[in-house]
Amino acid sequence: MKNTSPLSPELLVPKMGDYLVEKGLITQNQLVLALQEQEQFRSREEKTPLLGKILVEKGFITQENLDRAIAEQILQYQNALQEANQKLEQRVKERTAELEKALEQLHSLNELKSNLVANISHELRTPLTHLTGYLDLLLSGDLGPLNPQQRAALEVIQRSSERLAQLIEDLILFSVSEKNQIYLNIRPVNAFELLSSVYQRNSPKAIERQINFHFEPPESTLLVAADQEKVSWVLMQLVDNAIKFTPPAGKVHLFTERDEGFLKIQVSDTGIGIPADRIEQIFEPFVQLDGSSTRKAGGTGLGLALARRIIEAHGSVIHVHSEESKGSTFSFALKIVSG
User: Fold this and answer.
1) Would you say 207 and 227 are in contact if contact means Cβ atoms under 8 Å apart?
2) What is the per-residue burial (b if ≥16 Cβ within 10 Å, else e) of 68-81?
3) Angstrom distances, CA of residue 197 to CA of 80, 211, 229, 233, 274
4) Are 96 and 122 in contact (CB under 8 A)?
5) Which end of the chain is more exposed for a tag (fewer CB within 10 A), N or C?
6) 121 with 171: CB under 8 angstroms?
7) How many CB atoms lie within 10 A of CB 18?
8) pTM of the predicted model as reported, rounded to 2 decimal places
9) How far is CA 226 from the centre of its chain?
10) How does pLDDT run across 169-191, given as a tens digit for each residue?
């Protein structure tokens, strides 16, 4: 038969017997006798009465004193709980204040870092401009004839200066994006012309590295809403990475597909791939999967971080699908406005 008797307050109070002894309401011997009787009920597998009930039945304590002691102890527990909650609340407030201060310091450091990167990058522009100007004069023959060895050496310097100029521009763009100051000139852009330009500019590099670079152009009249210069920069980064991390005789594929009013632009390769647990890391600034001093692929590790910010500024997202030793596919979608 189901027990429907009301819940006794004594159940809420642990070690009730010790408390009664401590308060002088019963003796230690009386507590021992009551506990022994309670154990006898338990050993006979009978319903075991509460300790307080046994004490009352034996006349060791009145029901009134027992109830008062239970109420006092419950009140003590309530007070202790309230005090603990107050201490916890105060600690939470202190930790919140500490975290807010740390966040403010981190924001200041990020601001300082962005300003430092921007200032250094701008300062590097001036001497680099002088360097490239004189290189152009030398290579054009305006400063005198060159023998083949001299021309070859200057062409190497010129390629290095172009690379350095690109790195400086990346740093400046990064410092701007860190301040959430990516300004977009959104307008209708011909997708065919946009992607064709990226394909043509990367084809020589693919040929040099013996990469099969395949391009499937979209319709020639298709227009998408985009900042042409910045989306072109993103695609250059994606294609450059695909070529860079694909071994000779591998394939890089630049193609598109329509998806409910959007044009999905995709760059796939048969390169080294990315470990699943490290895909998110490739979008962190200054991070490269191979961070060793002997890495084969150069760069600042800013390309994908900036690419993500630019595409997100367009209201889109860069998606990545990759398998180690099989290759990767990067894709994002732009809204179709005509075609």
Assistant:
1) no
2) ebbeebeeeeeeee
3) 73, 18, 11, 11, 27
4) no
5) N
6) yes
7) 11
8) 0.56
9) 26
10) 777 776 666 656 677 889 999 99
